[in-house]
Fold this protein.
Amino acid sequence: MTQKTYKVIQWATGTVGKTALKYFIENPVTELVGVLVTNPDKVGKDAGDIVGLPKTGVICTDSEEAILAMEADCVLFSPSMMTPPIDMVCRLLASGKNVVSPAGPFLPNKFIPEHAARVEAACKEGHSSFHGCGIHPGYSGDILPLTLARLMNRIDFIEVTEIIDKVRNPMIYTEIMGFGADCDELLANPRRSPETYKHFYSSMTVIAEGLGVEIDEVTVKFEVSKAKVDIAHEFGLVKAGTCGGQHYEWTAWSGGKPLIVYHFYWQLGTELEPLWEVGEAKYRVRIHGDPPLECHLMAMEDADGRHPFLGIPWTGLVGCTVVPQVCDAPAGVVSHFDLGVVKPRGLVRR
């Protein structure tokens, strides 16, 4: 029996995009047919050159119109930007291409109904399917907790925590996110909008729906820690007394009690006051209930005995591995439940 293959386009080749590009080139289920790049130095290069693999015959382009005109089953859409470019998502869908997007929009989501309506309309026009995914929002904040929930007799509430030491795991967003800024000024004007949780609401909804309950409201908490000394990192220097750590906390409430809590601890080393978390980068799921459960999702040790942060490449892979299912799904928004995530109902008792 001949194995079905899917023609794919990789949109952008940052860290997420390179991970996806390597996957598509090496996987026999996918046939790479196009690559969109935004760096002028990459235009005209063979896709294999971008990720250190043999030449593929697929030449990188910066022409969005050329990509839109290509024949393909799916686009892995991973632009390097903080806000999902909904216009391009809809153009790709309307052109007849299925889209898997680690950049969002993350649907279903009651906080961005206009995005949902536009995506559904574009899917209808192009007879295509759309799936927004990632590591968080996405896998660590919805699929993983629901999978672990099958080991529970009773669930009181669920905590999902992202922990990153941005000295050990440098990221270009360090300065953009306000590290090194005056702490009071950053508290008054967070670089990550207080409404960012709205884009994570789809993951919260997946958990709530899986447990058979509804979310009443989401509350937000933001706090910072000060650097006790000057802290050097790959992209600059954070002065003592300025912001060296950030903690975002988003809580989904149901029936007057917390149901889901998302924590994000981003820290530059350990010379901070306060120091909230120590240890290696990870995603941690704690399910409070009977029996209480804790699970850590992290990379294996590298040659230096450290556990590197793999959240960014995982964001690419969780999209790559679902391409065939999204392509074969009926037209419209494809949720985790459409892809077979189990709903362990009846575990939350109030």
About this structure: Residues 197-211 form the longest helix (15 residues).
